[in-house]
Design goal:
Layout: H1 4-14, E1 53-56, E2 73-78, E3 92-96, E4 108-111
Parallel strand pairs: 2-3
Antiparallel strand pairs: 1-3, 1-4
């Protein structure tokens, strides 16, 4: 039996890079870029939530689980298109909706389905 490393080595030894080819955008579906594509500006121009949930400080919820929940104080909410003018401090959270800018002080979002209102 092969080890994972041996299998990877065999696969990589057999792989042959394909030559670069320019194609029309309409013909590019299913193909792989030959080089990184970098946008000239960030879109959106702010860090936003990719889900409905609660904006938190990640350090506040280290070790949180269903068996060991971490209670946080709800201090507000920010809808998509809205802005929360306060700051997420230790022990607090802000209700956030998909697309809304992440409030100052928050560096993570807990998916709403993983929470229990208290």
């Amino acid at each position: 039996m092969l080890t994972v490393e041996e299998a990877q080595a065999r696969i990589l030894a057999e792989g042959v890079p394909l030559p670069r080819e320019d194609v029309a955008l309409a013909d590019a579906l299913g193909r792989v870029l030959a080089a990184d594509l970098v946008a000239p500006v960030a879109v959106p121009p702010f860090t936003n939530s990719s889900m409905d949930g609660y904006a938190v400080r990640a350090s506040d919820i280290v070790g949180a689980s269903e068996a060991a929940p971490v209670p946080l104080r709800l201090i507000g909410q920010v809808p998509a298109g809205g802005v929360f003018t306060g700051e997420v401090m230790a022990g607090t959270t802000v209700r956030i909706f998909t697309g809304a800018p992440l409030p100052t002080g928050a560096d993570a979002v807990v998916q709403q389905e993983l929470t229990t209102p208290g």
